């Protein structure tokens, strides 16, 4: 595992610890667990593992509640063609 940008072994170790904390509590889903996502939550909470975990779990809860992962990706070009032909 490595983080992009300037290499900081201390921050990399914190990401590893954060991942292990989530794994130990069986709260690490298959998605949204790449190093950069986890680092984002750690930075947001000044590298406090407990606060970062709370923010991360709230993020996952929000995604589930609003069914973000179920949103269909729409090809904008096909929508544009349909809308334009309706207006003719």
From TrEMBL:
Listed InterPro entries: CRAL-TRIO_dom_sf, CRAL/TRIO_N_dom, CRAL/TRIO_N_dom_sf, PI/PC_transfer
Superkingdom classification of source: Eukaryota
Places the protein is found: Endomembrane system
Domain CRAL/TRIO N-terminal: 34-59
Family annotation (Gene3D superfamilies): CRAL-TRIO lipid binding domain
One CC-aspect GO term: endomembrane system
Main subcellular localisation: membrane
Membrane topology designation: Peripheral membrane protein
Name of the protein in question: CRAL/TRIO N-terminal domain-containing protein
Species whose genome carries this gene: Ilex paraguariensis (yerba mate)
